[in-house]
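Students often ask why we bother predicting the structure of a whole assembly rather than each chain alone. The short answer is interfaces. A chain on its own may look different once its partners are present, and contacts between molecules only exist in the joint model. In this exercise we take two input lines together and write out one structure for the complete complex. Read the inputs first and try to guess which parts will touch.
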Amino acid sequence: MIQMNIKTKDKNKLENETENQDDQVSQLRQDIASGDWVVIATGRAKRPDDFAKFERVKDDKGIDQCLFEDPVTSGQEKDVLIYTDKDGHWSLRVFPNKFPAVSSAVIAKAISEGPYFSMPGVGFHEIVVTRDHFKQLALMNVLEVAEVFDAFQERYLDLMNKKNVSYIAIFHNHGKEVGASIPHPHSQIIAIPVVAPYVKLELDGAQLYHKSNQHCVYCVMSEYESDCEKRVVFENEEFIAFCPFASRSAFEVWVMPKKHSPYFERITDTEKIKLAEVFSKSLNAIYTALNDPPYNFYIHTAPCDGKDYPYFHWHIEILPHTAIWAGFELETGIEISTIQPEVAAEYLRKQISNR
Amino acid sequence: MIQMNIKTKDKNKLENETENQDDQVSQLRQDIASGDWVVIATGRAKRPDDFAKFERVKDDKGIDQCLFEDPVTSGQEKDVLIYTDKDGHWSLRVFPNKFPAVSSAVIAKAISEGPYFSMPGVGFHEIVVTRDHFKQLALMNVLEVAEVFDAFQERYLDLMNKKNVSYIAIFHNHGKEVGASIPHPHSQIIAIPVVAPYVKLELDGAQLYHKSNQHCVYCVMSEYESDCEKRVVFENEEFIAFCPFASRSAFEVWVMPKKHSPYFERITDTEKIKLAEVFSKSLNAIYTALNDPPYNFYIHTAPCDGKDYPYFHWHIEILPHTAIWAGFELETGIEISTIQPEVAAEYLRKQISNR
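Now the answer. The structure tokens for the assembled complex follow.
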């Protein structure tokens, strides 16, 4: 982690200095957890309205040919989880991916070739499908969203005890532009035998911060954001959604429990409803503000590799697809964002208060 | 860096085991320098031909409205470097970007806001333009490509001595899909006050490898690749191009000096010609194999922050745009590639031998 060495100064003075930066060409901001840098290029800035240019994602095959409309007859694998509504119709189902990135059918065994290492792609790859072809997550009500998180948790609790599972990735792609090859709303769960490198960066950063400051870096972040308000999108007693100080993409939103917890899978039913409220308000605000943009979201939670991660703090990252990763981002890992998170958050808040 | 703990076994036995993996669902491979993981998803594999589906990049504005055709009259900033041909016409010019991501007009000063850090986006952002609107790098001859590397070196040597410059990013975007907003062939140079996080990952990995093995990890890699041949695209006495064992994208190619050197800017004129040969053969092979795909390339070289990096080894990474970063990649940093680097390299070699 790259950490800047700055002495603490008078808070008001600092805020003034920060304000004065607004008219400068750009700002380099550091993510205090991962150590990542971003460029907020206000010299290339757009107004919030300029981002709302997306064509709605077209479902070109139509509902008749949808592979997830009736998963059983379209030849998907057998469900590992199914939820039904009060009339006995399925409302959500989870089944193994027919074209998995990793598979439980192989034997986990380290292989070396010359100086290199590899291992068979052992793991689990599942699809979480909700019933309504036309109702994307951003349009679901709180209880419908909570049911999706129920399924994530239930599958997580099962998969974490399987052999060779060290990390469970839970993510959602909305829009062809960001990898959703089937338009029917669905999330994915991939359980892998290694800790995800991006999560490792956050784990290492959180551990280092905890060692230096005796505080969880994400608790510090969520408390500060709730206090200063300018980057908050929505919050209730249990959860807060905000545009992170070092946003990598325009209109990026993080959703975080206010209570310290490293492990998503330990969320209670009451907390899940509170989470669903903050999450669905935020996602709907993005949907409205940017005219149904493509987006990805995922959960960053502590690994399930048998170790303890008391210094970590699980959260959700929502990344609307508003820019292209070009050579600079690919070379450096520093993303250039063209709107200040403070301006993005204000615009998102407006969508919520206008409803 | 995540390192697998594997005992060295009999080499032949290992190679056989590796061969047997080919029919399995997928492989997890580790980049021994950066510690990154990739998934080579052979279960979702495509044949090499399947990748050659790109529409050629359309120059929708046409040459008349090109801002780089005649940079002076179209209001670009004053040149910082200009090369002319034997007739006195310009063949290459470098000028500051009119819409810079970072700027030398601001004062470098660390700013804190609550728990966060930022600094003004101080630095230099320049554009390197070659004369012919229609001749992209992949179609240039060796001397023309060498001239581009001449310009990179000359600007690097100037910028590295400027105040607040710790890393100089040199990159090229080809195609609107990967960020080239102006179709006229051009590269970019961005000098920044922090070490790029992705470069830091490689630096740390190379340092750790050197400590454990008393060898440069990239020297080990280039020697092994040259010996075993199967991932080599093209090589001469001085440089080697190969598809890396842990390729992040299909048809990814790295170009590397065979002689150990941390610093791109110390390349000699003779070496530059050798580099241009290997680089242009590789880029042309990608152009032919994938039907003029969008791509990015960039140079990873040691920082110019006043420290020594004897364990590092500069190289170029070429990333054709053959896939979308979806939720899994964004969450984990693990990329899923759908073709084995060995198959990609064989296909690229075929383009070169068919010419």
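Check your guess against this: The first helix of chain A runs from residue 11 to 20.
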